[in-house]
User: Fold these one by one.
Assistant:
Number 1:
Amino acid sequence: MKEKSNFWLVFLFLSPALSAILFFFIIPVVAALLISFTDFDIYSLGDLRRLRFIGFENYLKLFRDELFFKALFNTFYFVLVGGPLSILVSLFAALLLNSKLVKFKKLFRTIYFIPVVTTIVAVAIVWRYLYHPRFGILNYLISFLGINPVDWLGDPVFAMPAIIILAVWKNFGYNMILFIAGLQNIPVELYEAAELDGASNWFKFKSITLPLLAPTTFFTSIITMIGYFQLFAEPYIMTQGGPLNSTLSIVLYMYQEGFRWWNMGYSVSIAFVLFLIILSGTIIQFRYEKRIHY
Amino acid sequence: MIKKIVILITLILFSSCNKKNDVVLSFWAMGVEGENIKKLIPEFEKKFNVRVKVQQIPWTAAHEKLITAYVSETLPDVFQLGNTWVPEFVALNAIEPLDSLCEVKNFDLNDYFSGILESNRINGVLYGIPWYVDTRVLFYRKDIFKKANINEPPKTWNELYEFSKRIKTITRNYAIYFPTNEWVPLIIFSLQNKAQLLKNNYTEPAFTDSEFISAFQFLSRFYNEKLSPSNITDVVNIYQAFEEGYIAMYITGPWNIAEFRNRLSSNSQKLWMTAPLPSPDSIYPGISLAGGASLVINRNSKNKELAFKLIEYLSTPEVQIKFYNLVGSLPSKKSSWSDSIFANDQHLKAFRIQLERTQSMPKLAEWENIVISKIQKYIEEVALNRMSVREACEKLNEETSILLEKRKYLIEIGSL
């Protein structure tokens, strides 16, 4: 009896939060799932009788859609190249800032973190100038190495690398801070003991720093993966998905289909496919995580 | 306590009842137009003893905002609509047919440029009154033309091509700029070449017709022979490129007159001029796009009569000329153009001539999707030489017919 009254009490206190989740999360998601089985578009918006229930047709259409696969490929390209690169750069920066040799640590930490808090729109506009084929500083710098000017954002081959460089530069500061926290959690005694045994710096890094940093690495890699799968703002501002759709990401494609052309049904089905991809990515990483705890 | 609340509520109710007596007309306009039109409204308010609430919407958010307002039934009484958006809002059943209102009010439609008025007619019914007009003409560098021994701007496709080649050999830069992320040049060329674009009440593509293919082939020659840059990023700042002579010709619209005047250095001001578009046949000028914005009335508006009065007021030549002075939008009425301000403007002459030869594009809600996500994509593919024109046209046909499937179905069941 007592337990039951407890249940209602708990429920009462939880209800504001639960109803927020219900109205702003569960209902929209269920509604979206239903919409993905229809051809909801601009015509249906005007007159609901023009809505057709088409079952899995949207999903089947997705698998025949060249552009969707192009977007999928681009997104994986971005995640698989940009993700590890971003983590490596953050780790490297964190190690540098954690080393005893570096002065003005706080200053550098702030400087490296500034891109993270700068609005992407402003950043992207400045980077467009850096990437300019005729006047950009990047081409000026590589001209000293004897490399011909590269049309960074205009060439389908270089556009995605250009986006990756921008994204890594913009985001590494966040993971860097996490890595610094992780590094400071490693007990100093371990390094002292290793030094007594005459371990080299590389050996210390390999056998102490990396293993003990594993939980942080795991966390940052999941966060980075989820974030990078949702690539949107960078190509949206820099290239609009071009040239030749070489920077079209899944989320950008979803946005274009949904809010530009109002093919809501189709757009939502893209969202669900992306959800499944991120879910499976996270499951794989969690499987892997069990092996890395010390 | 309860008494007080009741009194308060009645007070509120009464005060809102009072307000209901004077009519408030809501009006949405976009970008600079929205910002500046407020200055012309007080005169109308005084004349008809009404209040007009003007809301300005940025162009970039306009489409979304209008659709959202439609869904939530908060569209204003009168609003501005880019004339390519009219078919979409007709499909939504959101705007009022204007033929009978025009007839009752004796509103003179003959004073409008026919191509542009036509873009507001869907299945023979008029839905919008052109507010300002916009079409594309050729902007060119007089000095470079002179250097290449060209006395007059090109009048035919052949001349356009020959002149471009001559300019290229002299400047060693590009001759003309057809941005690969712009569908406008291809659509202009194909309309000039009498291509149908879409057939059977716009339910099937006609991109494999010979008229369209040869227009596309004409455009692709400029890319293949490096007469036009084939990468978007070759020209990041069009004004700088024009000033440097990196390009000598550019097909663009009236908004660039003010931009060219502001952004080119004072030395270059005498060096540029505008001309009507060349044509594939002997009829000069060739056809250009019928663009611009229209004023439309919300179908659910309670003040349609008054809303039309606002449109009438904004359409008088005096107001149109004032409006031109404020924002530089070209007046939609021919009679407004007789004002000296237009007659004396050497850059506007080409526009005045071109406006007599415009044609509207296919009028369907999907058109913007077709040109931006399909046609533009294949222009890029052809410009970068990844695909032949014929291949591109076949792909274009294939993808467009998928896109038109719903429209075809709705027309077949008689729902559209």
Number 2:
Amino acid sequence: MSMKATIRQVDSVMVVDVSGRITLGEGCTQLRELIRDQLSKGNKNILLNLADVTYIDSSGIGELVSAYTAVSNQGGQLKLLNLTKKVHDLLQITKLYTVFDIHDDEAKAIASFQKA
Amino acid sequence: MISEPSVVEVTLESDLKNLEVAEEIVRRVAGTAGFGEESEHQIEMAVHESMINAIWHGNKNDASKRVWLRFEIYKDRLEIHIRDQGGGFDLAGVPDPCSGDNLLKVSGRGIFLIRTFMDEFHVKHLPGSGTEVTLVKRIDPAHQSK
């Protein structure tokens, strides 16, 4: 199953519901293009909902880091929502858990952008 | 007397599309070996990352080349051998992706994950024929309960 993403706007935040595999190749490319597209439209507050991500590999983790850096460099914020246990564990193992702002409640995640 | 392992061997075209094929085989082999869900996922990820190294870095994404996988199930461990037709790499030259300067780098976490998830990880250069990595996961009650 490849990666799928749907985008919805909640207040000033673009919520991206990601499902499937974020792995080397198609999944990573899709995510990269999606972030680039949002930034080009001036959408700098991005919340990645990873609840339905079934598989992520080291390249997928790298793509999350790349997205985080790209958004931060544009003066925006990229946050993560609803990590599965597998993604949660991988971010802890790679010491990235403290780099990302991670939420498990969408409303609170949206509110955290407004406070920033 | 050393008992013979149960062996599963497969040869795959060097194509990223075969990652999911390899993962399916890993799940079946790991299940047969008696690993629990968490260990099974760790082995699956380690093989996935090794396959990427073999296809992408070793065989340079050349679909005319091959990747060989050999699974050996012993009573106390699962040994996985993955061989490509590339020139190999130096483990000592792989930086720590968790150190401050490397934390926000986009790449460089594959070998780290393999080492984290497996009990042993070896790389052997086969002059003129490629590179073989060996992954070992021991089978013990702790693994089987996860």
